[in-house]
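# nightly structure sweep
# worker-07 picked up a monomer target from the shared queue
# config: single-sequence mode, recycle default, output format = structure tokens
# input follows
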Amino acid sequence: MTSRRDEQVGQLKFRDPAQARRLTEALAERFAALNRSELWIMHVCGSHEQAIARFGLRAVLPAGLRVVMGPGCPVCVTDMPEVDEAVVLARQGVHIATFGDMLRVPGTVCSLADAQAEGARVHVVYGAVEAVDLARCTAGEVVFFATGFETTAVATAAVLRGALPANFSVLSAHKYVPPAMEIVARVPGTRVAGFLAAGHAATITGWGIFEPFAARHGLPVVVAGFEPLDILAGLVRLIELIGAGEATVANMYPRCVTREGNRAAQAQLWEVFRTTGGQWRGIADIPDGNLRLREAYADVDARRRFTIDLASLSDTPMPALAKDCICGRIMTGLATPVECALFGRECLPETPIGACMVSSEGTCRIWHHYGGGPA
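# output follows
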């Protein structure tokens, strides 16, 4: 059994100042060898951004090394019409169960929190299991508004494969990350020279999934964990690959990630879900970027169980400042939060205009909390 002291020692192992100094020195040395004034790296995970900001890692990066966050916040990329669907159902009297971060994400005209203030029954849950428990003790229909990437979708799939109460269904807004990386790599004007991939997603999918992407775009990918030393080591390896001109994949998170990933979890995921094209908020229509329920699970698909009339929202005006939000440019690495005229002024965690300010994994929310520093 692992004691609390053992856990603390293990944690310190990945936050060791001497190791951090050695890695930052290696980073400076590798970057200087590139002989470039500027280099842009993109990570695709809100947890990476939290660690980078929380531990002030940008302050120790070489001048000219820009580490930006891509579309790595599932709440941020949930499209407005998907939020609208949940709002319409809530206004129809359906119980909506969803993650806390989703409550204040603006839809086209309002958020679930707004609907809740009007009297709709919106419940915060920590996952699909709790949503099912809610349905078991509720007389009315309960819809789990399911968001998140493949890591969260696996948990939803596991629940749907089990016994369910008759009044439970799922409104899937789950997303699949690899197709979004394809779009970001092709964005006109992109300066991204390499990707830092999320360790937890790769734990499910395996690092081998990135090999075709790296070869297709001529960009290296390094899978990294979430402790400060994980991220620094990942950046060192990524710059080594860029310097060597190797468009390959490196796994710097071997304690969790294998080439094949978790095959049992993958089997569950693809038994329940299929990919389909659809909008990622503020970014683009991404082929195969959305996860929707397969035909075999049609009886628990809220889109089939209910008539969701989005036109019923047309009487409510769109918030005036929404058109000035640049979340899409921020999530594709073309801008930083401080370049948004609304950031820290009209757009605050208490009064978010864009989705990036709502979620704890959103770049704007993270920068507002910790400070972002140089990109």
